Amino acid sequence: MRFARLGHAAFALLALLALPARSSDLVQLINAYRAGPAVCAGRMSPALPPLQARAALAQVHMASGRFLQQDLARAGYRALQVEAIGVRGASDLDSVMQLLREQHCATLRNPALPDIGVVPEGDGWSILLAREDIVPPLPTQAQSTRAILDATNRARATARNCGARAFPAAPPLVLNASLDAAALAHSSEMAALRYFSHQGKDGSQVGERALRAGYRWQQIGENIASGMRTPDDAVAGWVASPGHCANLMNPGFTAMGSGYAKSTQTDIVFWTQVFGR
């Protein structure tokens, strides 16, 4: 299962007196600082592109006991990484910048954080720098099935070890509509009922589900995954897992079907791959 990485949020209190100023002015000064090379933490930092002001980042107020990532998600920004700086009591923006350069240059000059939000906070400022977690759009079921088949056949074309077991290259699989239906039904049930198991809520296993879908099998197998974002990610995860890899490389299988479903409650995507002969 794959989860987004979340950066550590550091909060600092900087003591001076503040005068009113616009958030855009502070963003402009920070970008001017980034525009040229500078010594930061004893090392030369190269010039960096300007930070992009994001409205969602400017809606979140830092407070003790709050989770920035959750607040950002509610504001419409899914953060892969976020760093926070709190400035309190600064008399003017030049003083703010001096403190930022001296104490937070590494955050301001972090090339992995392209977005910024600046929020006036009483006698100071809250500054968030972040990288958004961009989730690619899901393909159609037909596109997904084709992508999973192609990635699976590429993996089968090369001999490999699945854990301690060595597998020779295997013949390519062909698509089967009944196995597609069995896979999609299981993914849909896992997404709707929010569980993750080869056993269905009715106690069924993959063999029973394949028969229901009209596939009379001599040999049957199933891989499942959740949290993967693309068909290629799902196959890569299966190849990296010894048990799933053994299913994928099994020369006894001749056909394959797959299907995915997304939970409406959690946005987690569930993937199922069914092999048959």
Summarize the structure.
The protein is of the alpha+beta class and 277 residues long. It has helices at 23-34, 68-74, 93-103, 105-108, 141-156, 177-193, 206-212, 231-240, 242-249; strands at residues 38-40, 43-45, 52-53, 79-88, 115-121, 124-132, 160-162, 165-167, 174-175, 220-226, 255-262, 269-276. Helix 5 (141-156) packs parallel to helix 8 (231-240), helix 6 (177-193) crosses helix 7 and helix 8 packs across helix 9.
Can you describe this structure?
Helix content is 33%, strand content 23%. The protein has helices spanning 23-34, 68-74, 93-103, 105-108, 141-156, 177-193, 206-212, 231-240, 242-249; strands at 38-40, 43-45, 52-53, 79-88, 115-121, 124-132, 160-162, 165-167, 174-175, 220-226, 255-262, 269-276. The strands form four sheets. Strands 3-5-6-4 form a four-stranded mixed sheet. The protein has a four-stranded mixed sheet with strand order 9-11-12-10, with helices on both faces. The radius of gyration is 26 Å and the shape is elongated. The model is unreliable at 1-20 (pLDDT under 50).
